[in-house]
Amino acid sequence: MSLSIRGKTAIVTGAGRGIGLAIAKDFVDRGANVMFADSDEALLEAQVSEAAEGNDQIRSFAADMSRKLAMANLLSATIDAFDRVDILVNAHRVVKRSDPLDTDVDTLEEMLRQNMMSALRMSQLVARRMIRQADENQGNDEAGAIVNLSTLAGTRPVPDLLGYSIACAALDHATRGLALALAPHKIRVNGVRFSSVMSHEMKGALREEPSIRDSIIAGTPLGRIAAADELADTVTYLVSPGAGFVTGQILTVDGGRSIADSVTASLL
User: Fold this and answer.
1) Residue 191: closest CA among 89, 95, 94, 115
2) Which residue, 35, 91, 227, 237, has most beta carbons within 10 Å?
3) What strand order describes the sheet that includes 144-151?
């Protein structure tokens, strides 16, 4: 099974930290050209500038990843730097708590815009470019691969993260819909649904409330919190030739958490 992505060009959003950063770095290590994109310019500069110095494989782009103009400029910057795009990973996420009984829908709308609509619109934009590239080359090879990141909240709603949970569920459904729509164009679309991963958000939660570490570990059959690099490995598989016949799937990377009921989890 080939996991080679050497020579491919990838856009990774949310690449300034955590899971997105781990994915982008893994792609670079495997020989891909990578555009690191994030909304936090200072953070992106701090993470990427040293690695990018003298490395023609790396570029960075900072802008609000939920804005249409920013998305168009991101794609243009990628084409200017590398001439094409073969891989898109939508790892940009924003998590905000919400009151499930509050009638104010602002938080819900923001969570949908930041976590679902941004990924959907970026996928549509990049897919059109992938189709054009395939038409120009007139080849029979795969035209591109897209991966969307969501979390277990999409299948197991968290009451005080209701807006985020709804956005994750919507993104999973959008992933499957795009997979069907883009399959005739030889573009594969998959998702990774994760939980119990040492993401930026997880680190923040553990700083605020260290005691939840024990609860997470107790509810995870494999008995630990995964490293971001482990999620990066899954994403790399999905965009590689090794997953050439895989599309429309949402792979769950959660240490078995989603298959353990609350009673079983309390005994682990």
Assistant:
1) 89
2) 91
3) 58-62, 33-38, 9-13, 87-90, 144-151, 187-194, 250-253
Distance between CA atoms of residues 99 and 87, nearest Å: 37
Task: Report residue 82 as tokens.
Answer: 């590398």
Is the distance from CB of 147 to CB of 231 less than 8 angstroms? no
pLDDT tens digits, one per residue of 113-171: 999 999 999 999 999 999 999 998 876 789 999 999 999 989 988 888 888 999 999 99
Instruction: State whether residue 96 is helix, strand or coil.
Output: coil
The residues that bridge with 151 in the sheet, in sequence order, are: 194
Q: What share of the chain is helix, strand, coil (3-state, %, to 5)?
A: 55, 15, 30
In angstroms, what CA-CA distances link 259 with 78, 171, 181, 188, 218?
Answer: 40, 21, 30, 27, 13
- The CATH number that applies at residue 37 is 3.40.50.720
Q: How many domains are there within the chain?
A: 1
Q: What is the DSSP string of 151-186?
A: EGGGTS--GGGHHHHHHHHHHHHHHHHHHHHHGGGT
pLDDT at 5 over 70: yes
What average pLDDT does the structure give for the chain?
90
The number of beta carbons lying within 10 Å of the beta carbon of residue 221 is: 14
Domain region containing 177: 9-197+227-259
**Rounded distance between C-alpha atoms, residue 74 and residue 79, angstroms:** 9
Residue 245 in domain: yes
C-alpha dihedral, 117 to 122 to 125 to 128, nearest 10°: -110
Say if 209 falls within a structural domain. no
Q: Which two tokens stand for residue 127?
A: 């897919």
Domain assignment of residue 221, yes or no: no
